[in-house]
Amino acid sequence: MGTGRPRFQGGSQVNWLDEGALYSSIGLFLREDLGRGDITTQSVLMRNARARGRFVAGEKMVVAGLEAAEEVFITLDPQQQLEAFAADGEEVEAGKVIARTSGFADVLLAGERTALNLLQHLSGIATITRQFVGAVEGTKAKITDTRKTTPGLRMLEKYAVMLGGGVNHRYGLDDGICIKANHAAIAGGLGVAVRSARERIGHVHKIAVEVASRNDISEAIESGANILVIGGSAAAAAKDLIDDARKLSPGITLELSGLVTLENVRAYAEAGADLIRVDALTQSVRAMDISFQIQPG
Questions:
Q1: What is the pTM of this model?
Q2: Do 171 and 14 touch, CB atoms closer than 8 A?
Q3: Residue 271's CATH number
């Protein structure tokens, strides 16, 4: 689209939307859909027929996935490009022409479904993220994603979260330390797990610890935790735990997780959370209504 690849500015080890990784992923997606070829198009159209296509928003949304959609067509035909009329991360109204392209009809038809799937899904993530971010506006809380992503789509889904105004949590298990109840149980206790991690990992990495009680908070802080993750508590109970943690360590980072919705996220933010982890950003997102309209050309 003439502007280069968008930067992936999350805090994870993948710090940009990597063109090579994207190209490799798109190739797999197309092989899954095309198989040995588009036999419908081959049986209906004359070879070298030309066509024009345009992506149109069917509802208000935050656009995400234009780079991925373009890569679909480039993979099929290196000369193919999208002319964009909106930018990734831009909010558009229903009826907006998001992008258009022209070229061989068989390329447009072969790439249509894969490109649409990506645009619809990623725009859904960016749109719901923008809604969560808007719901906590005026508080210090930041909305963050999780590792509950679609296998094979993590890079793109986390990029879409950023476009919606959220921030990225761990990209993968090698990207940060988060001690959970199962780790603590196997290690011999929460304090033991935190101290072991601190001794083995050194001073560079921060240590996040899931806590569920005042005793957990005290033990985690005394053992050297940098981030406390409070999960499964109602907003009022979470506020009490946050207040306790702030008394013991005023500068500690507090993260909330659990069944967070658009209806209750404001209450969690006002409880004093620094970060609110939202599974729904990538786990149960609704695809946006986007059509790909093709005409002879």
A1: 0.90
A2: yes
A3: 3.20.20.70
